[in-house]
Amino acid sequence: MVMGATHxxxxxxxxxxxxQALPPDWGGPTSTAEVLTFAGVCAxxxxxxxxxxxxxxxxxxxxxxxxxxxxxxxxVSLGYYGITRGRxxxxxxxxxxxxxxxxxxxxxxxxxxSAAVIRFGRPAIIATLFLTLGLxxxxxxxxxxxxxGWIAVTTVAAALAAVTWxxxxxEVGSRALGAAVGLGCLMHCLGDAITREGVPFLAPLTPWRGxxxxxxxxxxxxxxxxxxxxxxxxxxxxxxxxxxxxxVWTVDGVPAAVVGAIDQYR
Length: 266
Hints:
The protein is mainly α. Helix content is 64%, strand content 0%. The chain has nine helices and no strands. It is globular and about 65 Å long.
């Protein structure tokens, strides 16, 4: 599978771009703190679809709790595949890259988070921030997380959720958090779609010739090997550079300063 760090950084890049484009009337972030929080939620949510396997980064993020949850999600995903598969879809023995790697899942999670935040307010926002920022920490600071363990990750995630809550009031969170989570899940599927294995993004909504779970993938000559040299040497570093550049660009005053500096040298 694509490495957790790559998924997380791609989610951060998408979140930083979306935060700039999302109108404030629709819940778009209006400050640097809100933009970075939105991007952090996207980064963490970009790991969520891999909750269908206990071999993933997300399954190791919160110790025994996330491991048990991953096993449960894997069983549900496999059951869903068995119920919805077409007559020519192969039998499977594991749920990885099934239910949680579909557009339906991304939409359902997005709507579910938005509904929970609207219904329950602050507790739902803090819970969402805790989960997604903890996953972002596990993905973006993998070496630190591996060294200090899941208890440290959980503690820091709780602190981050409490602090970032101060920058994410109810009226913003209710309209933007769901979009951030859904976008993160979408970026995960996009990342898996460029690998040789592909991803069944539109399953089981597109039956074709007896199959409902066709994998979307690039042509073999373009597809990358998950965890391979291209991902480690080219894709991962490129996404990291883009994320850092976009994060700096979101800081209040930076765009105006850059434009001013360019004008001086013209």
